[in-house]
Amino acid sequence: MTTYKAPVADTLFILNDVLGYERYSNLPGFADASPDLLDAILGEAAKLAENVIHPLNQVGDHEGCVRHADGSVTTPTGFKDGYDQYREGGWMSLAIPEEFGGQGLPYTVHTAVAEYMSSANMALMMYPGLTQGAIAAILEHGSDEQKQTFVPKMAEGVWTGTMNLTEPHCGTDLGLLRTKAVPTGDGAYKISGQKIFISAGEHDMSENIIHLVLARIEGAPEGVKGISLFIVSKFKLDADGNLGERNAVSCGSLEEKMGIHGNSTCVMNYDEAEGYLIGAENGGLKAMFVMMNEARLGVGLQGLSLGEVAYQNAVAYAKERLQGRSISGAKSPDKKADPIIVHPDIRRNLMNMRAFNEAGRALILWTALKSDVAHRSDVEADKQEADDLLGLMTPIIKGVLTDKGFEHAVMAQQVFGGHGYIEEHGMSQFVRDARIAMIYEGANGIQALDLVGRKLALNGGRAVQTFFKEVGEFCEANRADENMAPFTKGLKKGLNDLQAATMWLMQNAMQKPDNAGAASTDYLHLFGLVALGYMWGRMVKTAQEKIADGSGSSIHEAKLVTGRYFMERIMPETAAHLARISAGADSMMALPEDAF
Amino acid sequence: MTTYKAPVADTLFILNDVLGYERYSNLPGFADASPDLLDAILGEAAKLAENVIHPLNQVGDHEGCVRHADGSVTTPTGFKDGYDQYREGGWMSLAIPEEFGGQGLPYTVHTAVAEYMSSANMALMMYPGLTQGAIAAILEHGSDEQKQTFVPKMAEGVWTGTMNLTEPHCGTDLGLLRTKAVPTGDGAYKISGQKIFISAGEHDMSENIIHLVLARIEGAPEGVKGISLFIVSKFKLDADGNLGERNAVSCGSLEEKMGIHGNSTCVMNYDEAEGYLIGAENGGLKAMFVMMNEARLGVGLQGLSLGEVAYQNAVAYAKERLQGRSISGAKSPDKKADPIIVHPDIRRNLMNMRAFNEAGRALILWTALKSDVAHRSDVEADKQEADDLLGLMTPIIKGVLTDKGFEHAVMAQQVFGGHGYIEEHGMSQFVRDARIAMIYEGANGIQALDLVGRKLALNGGRAVQTFFKEVGEFCEANRADENMAPFTKGLKKGLNDLQAATMWLMQNAMQKPDNAGAASTDYLHLFGLVALGYMWGRMVKTAQEKIADGSGSSIHEAKLVTGRYFMERIMPETAAHLARISAGADSMMALPEDAF
């Protein structure tokens, strides 16, 4: 019943016109994805997402996964076929280096494609999504042999990957984890323990599953300093890397969840499973964060993806559902009532989603470009700056885009009235699926702490200052342009609020750390608003140039309206965030625990 | 797995100390519920809610209702027994007039009790809840015979009631409805048509079901002017009111919904069912609004109820879950980690919910008292003022308390991290159940339009002016009190924003009605913040008086902290609402429909 159309034209506008994708052609891989080819790649991705992957979305929610008595898990009808088409089309390996069987294309292109796929079917796309994170960790921390053994198969998608972090008593606080690793003396370890919430832990879509597992080597220090990362292959491998006997890792049960029913979320039991250290002994947390950072951007993208597909369905319903008359006079007098899109409050919902989604897409692609520069440039200064901004933006994209993606799925559901509450229409699924993105890969409160407690002060605040300078200069450069003034004014006001909040934190969080914690979520969202507002500034500027030079179209005209909506109706929230931040921790922390 | 404890002490503080319940003892029914008796009634209600009704909540979600081939519907295990205990305890009939078998107690007392029951089990309490609305409509618009025939049985709870408004093509816009009523010549009508989303339309808990059905009498005018209200009894009644043969009304199917699985939401088919006009011919909309207004307050209450029970469970989890160390130094050094309630961002979630719930409870009880005065006072001026404020506050309570109730259920779920997403913990159910309250009995966008388009200008703005005056005088009276200044300052700022928004609407909505529609939701929430802030002012004032005269306790100390939190962290949102309202409709409405 739901529909999805990949926003290819918008992606191309952002990449080609706003972000100047062609300027990066000197970076490895970019020449292989020229603007013409980019167009073709996104077109093909759109077809797959719309025609193959999306039609499986409601099926997946309805059927869910099934665990059998022998511990095997069956995915919903059609999932394996959909995954095979994705895999065989080479979509898994877009950005994987060519030496490991990938296509070496920009991460930016992978990101653009991943948005479409997650919009089409979030639960299905988690199987390859987790694999990407596992590949990243192996490429960064694995030995040459590990890379050669695992990555090509994973890039091809015949093997998939997982991340095994959480245990029943330990989620955020990984220092508490108990899973044990005992050296066998021949370079291997016996891994024992229980992991929970393991996405894609067991399923029927790939020949083998590569588990990356955090565990504590016998005698290791307590806390996070004693954690190591291991590779545990579902099937043991012989010397040539061929599949051998079953390893002692199994799915004990499937979690009954609020959403993403099509994804198998497993309790995984390790019973002296054969595992191999990846990276340094006791260096597991560092290796894990490679996966985690990759995954956090992917989860932020899921937030946008769900907000986008929910928006599209709300638009379709608002154009089709006839109810009431426009307050300014009948718009469809030949019909019994007007379509509800004529009503301002319905428009408010649609415009909120749209204004956010288009800027969110720009911010994700802007950040993905930073990732490409950070990993592929040979100019040290460029690499450092890009890496700074990538690290800074990661918690913001994860936290803000998933909070808003959920909020917008709820908003889209609201447009459907009572019909939105009925499962058949699919709007409830978007809400239920979007909900998890605020939680996993570090709940959004943790993202906020990462921003305030780590990223803000890192290298003397270098990343933040770089960002403030870029946005400030953009405002200054366009201040005198009367077409741009309405946009730079709102953006500058937001930037001022953000800088004031940053100053407040510097002055008040050192002597009283609770002030940082108390400010963190508001600071995250304040930062997000300014980053999104900056994207609107850039998009509007480009649209105006297009219109001025005669190459503009209705897309560009629409950008001016939507950008104005953002500045008028979304940007003013920065002041409330600043007020809350400046209130400090006192009233938040004053109640004694037993008063609750 | 979930727990619930009725907040009796807080209800008593609000009723007795803040709102001066005893001052109303001259109103009918109030003398029968003296403060002592009130205490006893709430205590008994708490026991029933906590020990009988709440334990059925997760069962209801898990099992749902089942429709059998013959059209009958079975409710979840234990629901009938729970309902019977509720019914036999006389909880149905608390505020029903004594002449119709009720107890004639204040509606305020009924409201206090209803909060507990809905917190305990929203889906179960919808069966009696809908019955209350049907009773109200019959008492207001029914003939003496209809009142005598139906109300005593419904007050006793052996018969239940429903509201049948929505049809597949017509929800908000009732003018489109098609259900037909053909006079039979003997005073009855044959009702034919299909109704959807009918809560408690068919079930096994009562001997008979009294459907109040909107339909169009043959030859009636088009639109809402041609709608009449009918009583259709599931079993026809003989001359003595005894149950006779089955009427031609049946449940065609149950909707598969996101939540409230324990409530049977039916498609109801009327196939020349015998019905009787209630109220005037073509006067159905007016009669329906009696039910609707009652129901809207009830739904607002559901928002609070769900926010409260979700909050309580989040508090319990936050005290028990050990994860990480306090940023200001270990609080439980003897344990492996501190309980997560030590973390400011967790506190932020808890304090947001708490600050809102306590004020929401006060606002609902304040409004319920207005309802009692409006219906029971014999002083005309008091009645009018109370009725004005009741009408004004109804859309605010419905819209704001359900938006926030849902938001807080989501917030409470977030405190649980990954465990919140697992159905077993029950937090997902609170979110899924709370979601419907934003939609039914008029989606919240409709509440906002009711406020801006109808209530605001009614009688020359009399209600709004009364409210502004009351809040303004409260600020003025307490401005000089230095203990109160931090509270009156925030409240006054909010009131100023609300008055500025009201002025803007008066100046800009007449010549351009889209400006009213574009402002409506923000205006609703802005109004809600001021109303809740006013409740905080009143509560803090009372708490300070208690503390000053030596009768204060930890409850009163906590009010000062929570009230300050509200003023520092929630009240500042009024400025963003005002900014959005003042932006007008232009950027919201400018995009052509085909640009979406």
TrEMBL record, chains A, B:
Assigned keywords, A-Z: FAD, Flavoprotein, Oxidoreductase
Cofactor: FAD
Gene3D superfamilies: Acyl-CoA dehydrogenase/oxidase, N-terminal domain, Butyryl-CoA Dehydrogenase, subunit A, domain 2, Butyryl-CoA Dehydrogenase, subunit A, domain 3
Keyword Transmembrane attributed: no
Pfam families: Acyl-CoA_dh_1, Acyl-CoA_dh_C, Acyl-CoA_dh_M, Acyl-CoA_dh_N
Domain Acyl-CoA dehydrogenase/oxidase N-terminal stretches: 81-157
The organism's place on the tree of life at top rank: Bacteria
The keyword rRNA processing is assigned to this record: no
Chain ranges of the Acyl-CoA oxidase/dehydrogenase middle domain: 163-271
Sequence ranges assigned to domain Acyl-CoA dehydrogenase/oxidase C-terminal in this UniProt record: 282-451
InterPro entries in the record: Acyl-CoA_dh-like_C_dom, Acyl-CoA_Oxase/DH_mid-dom, Acyl-CoA_Oxase/DH_mid-dom_sf, AcylCo_DH-like_C, AcylCo_DH/oxidase_C, AcylCoA_DH/ox_N, AcylCoA_DH/ox_N_sf, AcylCoA_DH/oxidase_NM_dom_sf
Domain Acetyl-CoA dehydrogenase-like C-terminal: residue ranges: 467-592
Similarity field: Belongs to the acyl-CoA dehydrogenase family.
Protein name from the UniProt record: Acyl-CoA dehydrogenase
Originating species: Aquamicrobium zhengzhouense
